[in-house]
Amino acid sequence: MKRIKILDSLTESESLKTRTDNQKLINFGIGDTAFITPYPIIEATQIGLGTNKTHYTDSKGIVELREAISSYLQKFDIPSTLDDIIITPGAMQAVFYSLFIHVEEGTKVGLFEPAWLAYNKIIKVCGGIPVFCSLKNNRLTITALEVFIENDVKVIIINNPTNPTGKVWEKKELDILVNYCKENKVLLISDEVYNEIVYDKKFISIGQYKGINSIVIGSFSKVFSMTGWRLGYIYSKNKKNIDRINKLQQITATCPNSFVQYGAIDFEAELSKIQTQVAVYKRNRDLLYKTLSKINLKPLFPDGTFYMWVNVGMDGKKFAEKVYNDYGIVVVPGKPYGNDTQNFIRISYALPTEKVIRACKRLKDIKWVDAYKKLGGEK
Q: Where in the chain is the domain with CATH 3.90.1150.10?
């Protein structure tokens, strides 16, 4: 009964509500890309449909795709084998599986604020209690982890690179976190769906660390512009994690979509083209950061993903309503991302650059200081 009440209390995802067909609006809300799925993946999927690849598969996913993912993970120094991987119907399902098999009533789960808003909700639906840890200057220190010790946290989930800040976790930070999890026997879940969307820093996967109970989550959605295909995966060296997740998948999804799996087998061949997209995201980031910094806002400079986290100096929801109504720009209020995130917004800049330029021109015309005073922000 408690779980039903929790589900009833959840609000619809802000990012999904921001979909619109109004061509005059510039939608920085939805976390989707303006690029199309690589044609070879579309073509391979069509072949799968035409050759009867439309039936149940192994609940863990087809061998060919698991082998391809295993080979790909070795690029990040992850000692992967076929048995360490489960294909899932998207990364969100993978997050749910990973939390569900570990979180019971009252289990404390650690999050780093701001955290992708779905984590908080999934933890609660599983019966757990989210515990937020704030990062000073957006960097992890040993001292910051004291809140997890005080609350006897049993599971920690990170997003690397991070939605909504664009943070790319540095090696020294990951070393601190991994050592903490080893010493305190904490499960570490690392959501790495943006692992190829990194600008000037090096991405390091949790999967390369040994001697730790960890789960790595990956996806085809963001990197290959396949958000609607719903295809993700889980990697873990802990056999118990894999066995439990496989059983959970068998009684929920049965197996991942068959023909989508066949379409994605040769995904690595498309990675070289992804860098063209990353160059567009980087250009968009630079344009937005420069514009927002000039109009009394405080954007956090992202090192990865296609998101920007911005301190607007007033209630983020009121700010979002104002720019929507007066300037035709859609952004996501920051409140759902943590305990102390009300004065922030998230911008998703995975749009054509011409739209970002148009948005920047509109933003330059806004009298921000006057808006703050009228809406109860900075004086």
A: 2-37+271-374
